[in-house]
Amino acid sequence: MEDTLGSSYLNFTVGPVMMDPQILSLGAEPLPYFRTPEFSDLMFRNEAMLLQLLNADEGSRAVFITGSGTASMEAAVASLYGKEDKVLVVNGGSFGARFAQLLSLHGIPNTQIVLEPGKTLTREMLDPYEGKGYTGFLLQHDETSTGVLYDMNLVGDFCLRNKLFLTVDCISSFLADAADMKQWGAGAVIVGSQKAIALPPGISAIALNGEGVARAEAHDAGSLYLDVKVYLKNMERGQTPFTPAVGTLIQMNARMTALLKAGGAHAAVREVRERALYFRKSIEQLPFDIFPETPANGVTALAVRNGADAKAIFMTMKDKHHIFVCPNGGDLEHKVFRVGHIGVISTDQVDRLVAALSLTLEELAK
Ligand SMILES: *Cc1c(COP(=O)(O)O)cnc(C)c1O
Fold first, then answer.
1. Minimal CA–CA distance to 317: which of 354, 271, 279?
2. What is the pTM of this model?
3. Which of 95, 102, 168 gets mutated to test ligand 1 (max ligand atoms within 8 A of its CB)?
4. Beta pairing class for 188-192 and 203-208
5. How far does residue 285's CA lie from ligand 1's centre (Å)?
6. pLDDT, tens digit, 9 for 90 and up, residues 174-184
7. Which among 272, 255, 283, 281 is positioned nearest to 340, based on CA atoms?
8. Tens-place pLDDT, residues 125-172
9. DSSP letter string, 86-102
10. Mutation choice for ligand 1 from 70, 101, 142, CB with most ligand atoms inside 8 A
């Protein structure tokens, strides 16, 4: 059969990413019925492992939602904030813009801190909002659209000083850059299955500290499917309110078990960082500039220097070299593309990627 969807392609995107063969073969197993004590046990272990990987406080809880990362972003916005809140949201790219859109959609008063693409959040940008009666703060850890990693110590201190309830979208940074709920003082952290944890898409999760749990329990989410308190209630018995992506949750259990055995979040983050640094060193001779001010480990956004078209690079890499990189959208479509460093990737595969990028540039220059 002709491989038109690319199951044999190398995948250097930000999700779905290349997976461990053992996790892939688990995906071929028949699925069990899930309203059982055995499946509840698996869910309790999933919750405990996720909280451990995020260094969550004692008393923290986690809920698992069947839906991509955006489902958990919407559940967090709708369930943890209300009309009585006054929220700051960092909009540094398409995912920050999505948080802002969700806040407005759910009628939550908000102020956007809009950043130029690729720029990072600074102390000076937060100063005007000091002591102004804000109650909440939302941002990405890694704004994946441009690969900017925000300074979470800066944000955590600001939120602690001003008593803001902090929600962090760690969907692309979880297991790629160090996440520490306790140190950040984060009330809620969102993760997704198809990014650095390298599972199929379909599951996202929200980890909540005690205050996050209290907020969810006190709010009317105005949504049937995305009400976090209903997930919390069901999770007391290791269950979900609706049929979950059973297979992905089983794969998630196997993946987290293996990651914890192999050194936990520290080891996972170190591996992604080393791969990112190796890649960035390998392309030093190519006409690319690293686009973001403060690059995250999980992805490198590259601005193309010599007039080559970023979109054409993506297409040529896909069609001629059978390698997926990530195109950008909007104003950056022809100027910037992204290379992911998450998933199960060998050094040899990175070398093949760099060689193909080099050939692609030659081909496009003809
Ligand atoms: C991928 C991603 C999301 C969610 O995207 P989905 O397509 O809904 O899974 C949200 N935020 C960030 C930072 C992401 O990288």
1. 354
2. 0.98
3. 95
4. antiparallel
5. 31
6. 999 999 999 99
7. 272
8. 999 999 999 999 999 999 999 999 999 999 999 999 999 999 999 999
9. -EEEEESSHHHHHHHHH
10. 70
